[in-house]
Design brief:
The complex is a heterodimer of chains A (about 150) and B (about 90). Chain A has helices at about 10-20, 65-75, 95-100, and strands at about 5, 25-35, 40-45, 60, 80-90, 110-115, 120-130, 135-145. With about 150 residues, chain A is an alpha/beta fold. Chain A has one domain: Cytidine Deaminase, domain 2 (3-Layer(aba) Sandwich). Chain A has a 7-stranded mixed β-sheet with strand order 1-8-7-6-5-2-3. The longest helix of chain A has 14 residues, at about 10-20. Chain A is globular and about 55 Å long. The N and C termini of chain A lie far apart (about 45 Å). With about 90 residues, chain B is an alpha+beta fold. Chain B has one domain (about 1-85): Beta-grasp domain (Ubiquitin-like (UB roll), Roll). Chain B contains 2 helices and 6 strands. Chain B has helices at about 25-35, 40-45; strands spanning about 1-5, 20, 55-60, 60-65, 80-85, 85-90. Chain B has a 5-stranded mixed β-sheet with strand order 2-1-5-3-4, covered by helices on one side. In chain B, strand 3 (about 55-60) and strand 4 (about 60-65) form a beta hairpin. The longest helix of chain B has 11 residues, at about 25-35. Chain B is globular and about 45 Å long. Classes of the chains: A alpha/beta (about 150), B alpha+beta (about 90).
Chain lengths: ~150, ~90
């Protein structure tokens, strides 16, 4: 199983985002760097959910917002590593809609179940495959990196 | 002009995140891009040569679909073209 690494602050931030938008779905992009072990996320960029007609069970990020997010990623020397969204009162598993509308091959799709307003399970799925025709979601391990605490002399 | 390549397609352009191309229009720039990197074609275009429905093209910050001349829009050396696969989903079926 592949691994998605991210700092605790990013992991917590994307889960809090889902609580803030509950009962609507939240969404955003994950910016990071590819490593030999897989993506390492450095930061997350919140995005607006343009599906205001059905925000409780659909999300969409405006492409022009992604253009701007990608520009900011380049400025920081990062790449779009994947995306996150929430499933209000629904398991943190990819849906048929998530799969049909996933097109960033090689990127990570992180889903958080928000149950009654509280972030519950968070899972990540790698969109594997070489083409749109043979794509598939593969579950990943999320490795949350705790902030290092510097020891100070007494 | 500069064409920005999204993460999933970088392996088809030697790992680069941007490609410089001299062309008169968006269509000509894309033609050059896919001639130089033939494996890109199936990811950007349908078998009929249309841009795939989930592929968004932005000239600077403008959606190419809404430009009067669309892909025949003239471009300058300082313009940027972003290729952005769409992002959507949700629990609804």
């Amino acid at each position: 199983m592949s691994v998605l690494r991210m700092p605790r602050a990013v992991y917590d931030a994307l889960r809090v985002h889902g609580e803030e938008t509950y009962p609507h779905e939240c969404c955003g992009a994950l910016l990071g760097e590819p490593t030999a072990q897989g993506w390492r996320v450095a930061t997350a960029a919140r995005a607006g959910n343009t599906r205001t007609d059905s925000a409780h069970n659909r999300y969409q990020i405006a492409p022009v917002e992604l253009v701007k997010i990608e520009r900011e990623a380049r400025r920081q020397g990062l790449e779009i590593a994947g995306f996150y969204h929430s499933h209000p009162d629904h398991p943190a598993l990819w849906s048929a809609t998530d799969f049909a509308e996933a097109h960033w091959l090689g990127c990570c799709y992180v889903i958080t179940e928000v149950a009654q307003g509280k972030a519950a399970v968070t899972n990540s799925f790698l969109l594997a495959g070489a083409t749109e025709e043979d794509k598939r979601f593969e579950p990943q391990t999320i490795q949350v990196e705790e902030a290092r605490t510097e020891s100070r002399p007494a | 002009m500069t064409i920005y390549i999204p993460t999933p397609l970088r392996s088809y352009v030697g790992g680069k995140n941007a490609v410089e191309i001299e062309a008169g229009t968006i269509a000509a720039a894309l033609a050059q891009l896919t001639e130089a990197n033939p494996e890109l074609r199936q990811h950007l275009f349908t078998g009929e040569g249309k841009v795939r429905a989930f592929v968004n093209l932005y000239l600077n910050d403008e959606d190419v679909r809404y430009l009067p001349a669309k892909e025949d829009t003239a471009v300058r050396a300082t313009d940027t073209l972003s290729i952005i696969p769409s992002i959507a989903g949700g629990t609804a079926r």
